[in-house]
Structures are given as C-alpha cells and as structure tokens.
Specification:
The protein contains eleven helices and four strands.
Length: 466
C-alpha cells in the first residue's frame, strides 16, 4: 500500500507534464496545380473574394437568398451534422478528464431466531467519492483521438459553409434562369404580335391579287410557330418558379416572376480575382478535405499508441458509520493505485489497425489533392468564359441590329411587291434567333459570374488553417 501511495503522485506528475505524440508530423503538401490562375490583367486583383451580399445587386434576389439560408433543408441537414460532430468531439474530449463519481448507501439489517425478544437490528451508512480508471495518456492515444474528433468536427463546419455557398449559387442561378426565360417569353409574345400584323397584311395583299395563297400559308405558319414558342416559354417560367421555390425552401412572393429581370443585371458583371492559386486553399471543400487529412493523421498516432501500455489511475475516499447522523464524525478510508495493461498478443489486430490508419491517411491525402485540382479546374473554366463572353455579347448585339434592319427592309420590299414572303420569313427567323442568342449569352455571363464566385469559395474563410 505504501508503494502505491508513493507511485500515484509520480504518475500524476508525469501525466500533467504532457504525453508523447506518436502521430506523424503534418506539413501541408504543395498544391498539385499551377501557382497562378489564368487571370487576365483586367480581371486580376489582390483583393479577397466578395461575400454574397456584395455579389448581389438586386434587393429582391438578396431577400430570396436570405430566405433560403433560413429555410433550405440541405442547410438544416448540414447544421445538424455539425451538432452531431460537436457532440462526438465533446464525448472524446471528456476522455482526457477523470471521471469523478459519488456513491452513498444506508442500510438496516437484523437477525431473528423465532423469538421476537432475541431479534437484533444493525444500522450502517456509507459515503464515497472516487476516480474511476483515469487513463494517464503517456503515449498520446487519447490526445490523438481527441485531435481526430476535433478535426472531424471542424470539417463539418467547413461542410456547412460549402453548403451555404452552394445554396447562394443555386438561388442566384435559379433566379437568373427565371429572368432569362421571362425575356424569351416576352420575345415570343412580341413575335406573335408582329407576325400577326404581317399575316393581316399578307391577307390584304392576297385579296388584292398581289401575292399567292402560299404566302398567306407561310405567314400563318410563322404566327402559329411563335404561339407554340409562347406556350413553351410560359411552361418554362412556371417550372423555373417551382425550382426556385424548392431551393429556397419556403413560399415565394406572389410577384416573384415579375421581379426577375436580366437587365439591369441582378448581380455584378464581373469579379476581380487574385492571381495566386493559393486562394483556392481557402475554399470550404478544400479546407474540409484538409481537416479530414489531419484527422486521419491523428488516427495514426492513436494506432501507434496502442502498441504501448495503458496506465489507468483509480482512487476513492469515503466515510462509513453505524448511522446517518454520525456519518462524517468518525474515521474515513481511502485508496489509490495504478492499473497497467500491457498488450502481448492480439493476433495482429494492432498491426492491421495501424495499416488501416495509414491507408486512410493516404486516401485522405489523395482526396485533398483532388479537391484542389477540382477547384483549379472550376476556377480556370469560369475565367475562360469570363475572358470571352463580353466579346460574344458585343458581337451578338451588332448581329441583332443587322437582323432587325434586314427584317424591316424585307417587310418593306414584300409590301411593295419586290420580294415574296419567303424572304420575310427568312429575315424573321434570323432576327428571332439572334435575339434568342443574345439572351442566352447574357444569361451565360451572369451564370458564369455566379460559378466563379462559387469556384473561389464565396469569400475568405473564417476558419482557414494557419
């Protein structure tokens, strides 16, 4: 007993002095991508990426994004995963602290032999405070498990941030798609009106003997084609509203379709981008992958520590008496001592566990590098579009001007009898298609800005690794 008393303070002092960390030293790997992003001089900037509030120019869109951040079910799921990981980290962290428990009991016992006068009663009471199997983490097993749980928790935090960025992007893209389909619907409705006038003129010319019935049929077919386009885009607009309602996760304003417009642009026309590809390391999915790598690295330390003895400290102190009224008046008793468990043979289990931990670390490393490469690819693709889409839009605007003039001239030549209606139809198709292409290009530019915002991680990370 005396040796145990002497040994206990020594073990406590060793535990307080710290433990050996058997996990491999972690060094952030070099990013497997070029050091610079393919950014044009006009788009380059040393400033950080904008937050979503600075990306959005429309108050209506800003309101919908805020509504989605409150109601979207994917985001709620991500928040729940954080709560689970935080609780699991709390459980693991608790293993580093001693478990202190108190027990108490009061009993009354008696004997009898058939003679009531000879019966006897005995009272007893006991109170005890004890520490149960507190592991002295000399080889860092508990510390490594605690670190792995912490990094897993932080990974879920980054996962939630990634869901938020994806949600903002999804709402913005759904809004832009709705706005573009409304523009296409409006164009189809205008086409029905203008071609209806052309049909009326063609019928007048037919009644006057200037044109043939085939010209009337062509004009009528053009009107019906435009009406079919109106029906198609009306359905698309309704589908767009349904998609927007789903991603927001709540009821939308009654006039949401009327609020969605492409011009003026509801988002910024372009984003300034840092030249260095290091900015991609702050993307939440990249940070989440790195946190998982750190967790896997810590698990190697725990697997290595399993080869060494575990030393647990158990102690208790308490009082006992023959009654509750004098429980703490008499003498007490205490005990303290270590328990050592030394692994000798386990059929290769520890070796297999260490192999699993190392393979898991290699897998996490590959996934981390893959996330960086995917981030670079997404950013480079968005930048490639950003560098050419303005030229495309400028060319299409000039094309719309040309096809509009051509259509007016063709209609005038048909009215005076120089050309047949076939030339008018050809001019109408070209003008309609050029305007549709311009709407598509303006949509592509806006969607690409949102894609670039998402590819860059939606703003500086709050929890970036040092």
């Amino acid at each position: 007993m005396t040796n145990a008393i002497r040994f206990a303070p020594l073990m406590v002092s060793v535990a307080l002095a710290g433990c050996v960390n058997l996990a491999p030293d972690y060094e952030r790997v070099a990013a497997p991508v070029p050091s610079a992003l393919p950014v044009s001089e006009a788009d380059s900037s040393a400033a950080g990426v904008l937050g979503w509030q600075q990306l959005v120019e429309s108050k209506d869109l800003e309101h919908l994004i805020a509504l989605a951040l409150e109601n979207n079910r994917d985001l709620r799921s991500a928040t729940a995963r954080i709560a689970i990981a935080e609780a699991q980290y709390g459980i693991t962290r608790a293993a580093r602290l001693p478990t202190l428990s108190a027990t108490g009991a009061a009993t009354e016992t008696g004997t009898f032999d058939g003679d009531a006068a000879a019966a006897s009663l005995t009272d007893s009471a006991r109170a005890q405070l004890g520490v149960t199997a507190y592991e002295l983490d000399l080889f860092g097993r508990v510390a490594s498990l605690n670190e792995a749980a912490l990094q897993t928790y932080l990974s879920t935090v980054e996962g939630e941030r990634s869901v938020k960025i994806s949600l903002v992007s999804s709402v913005a893209k759904a809004w832009l798609t709705l706005a573009a389909d409304r523009e296409r619907l409006r164009l189809a409705q205008d086409t029905v009106e203008s071609q209806g006038k052309s049909l009326a003129l063609t019928r007048e010319l037919f009644d006057s003997g200037v044109v043939t019935e085939i010209d009337v049929r062509r004009a009528s077919a053009s009107v019906e084609t435009a009406k079919a386009q109106v029906a198609q885009f009306t359905g698309l607009v309704r589908q767009d509203v349904n998609a927007l309602r789903l991603v927001v996760g709540a009821n939308l304003p009654a006039d949401v379709a009327e609020q969605a417009v492409l011009s003026p642009s509801p988002i910024k026309d372009r984003l300034a981008v840092d030249v260095s590809s290091d900015i991609l390391l702050n993307r939440p999915d990249v940070l989440a992958a790195e946190r998982q790598l750190l967790a896997a690295n810590a698990n190697i330390g725990a697997a290595r520590a399993a080869y060494f003895p575990t030393i647990s400290l158990t102690g208790s102190a308490g009082y006992s008496s023959t009654g509750l009224d004098d429980l703490f008046d008499g003498g007490g008793a205490w005990s303290v001592g270590p328990q050592i468990s030394l692994p000798i043979f386990d059929g290769g289990r520890r070796k297999a566990n260490l192999g699993v931990s190392k393979a898991s670390r290699d897998l996490a490393l590959a996934q981390y590098e893959q996330s960086i490469q995917a981030a670079f690819r997404e950013t480079a693709d968005a930048l490639a579009v950003a560098q050419t889409v303005d030229d495309r839009i400028d060319a299409l605007r000039r094309l719309v001007e040309d096809t509009s003039v051509t259509l007016n001239l063709s209609q005038e030549r048909f009215r005076v009898g120089i050309d047949d209606y076939f030339s008018v139809l050809d001019a109408q198709r070209n003008d309609y298609q050029s305007r549709q292409n311009l709407i598509a290009a303006e949509l592509d530019r806006a969607l690409n800005v949102v894609s670039l915002f998402k590819a860059l991680g939606g703003g500086p990370a709050d929890g970036a690794l040092d």
